[in-house]
Give the backbone structure.
Amino acid sequence: LMDDQQPSARLAIDQFVMRVAQAVASMATAVGGIAHLVFTGGAGANSSPLRARIAECLMWMGVELDAARNLAGDDELSIPTRSDVRVW
C-alpha cells in the first residue's frame, strides 16, 4: 500500500482486497444483507489502509469507515449516523 512497492506486491495486495470484498459481498448476498462487518486477524486488525480499501469496495452495501477512527484503530470504525453497516 506504499508508493514504493514493487508491482508484484501491489498486484498481490489489489487481489487480496478484491477477494475479501467479493467474499463479504457473497456472504451478505446469501443472508440478505449485513448489519455488522468485523475486521479480525493480522491484516484486518492491523492494517488501516487495507480496511479502508476493502470498505471502499463495499460502499454500495452501506459500508463506510470514519477515516480518523480507522487510522487510530478504534474499536468502532463506522460512521454511526451515516452508515447502514456497523464496522468493527
The chain has a mean pLDDT of 86. The longest strand covers residues 36-37. The beta strands are 36-37, 86-87.
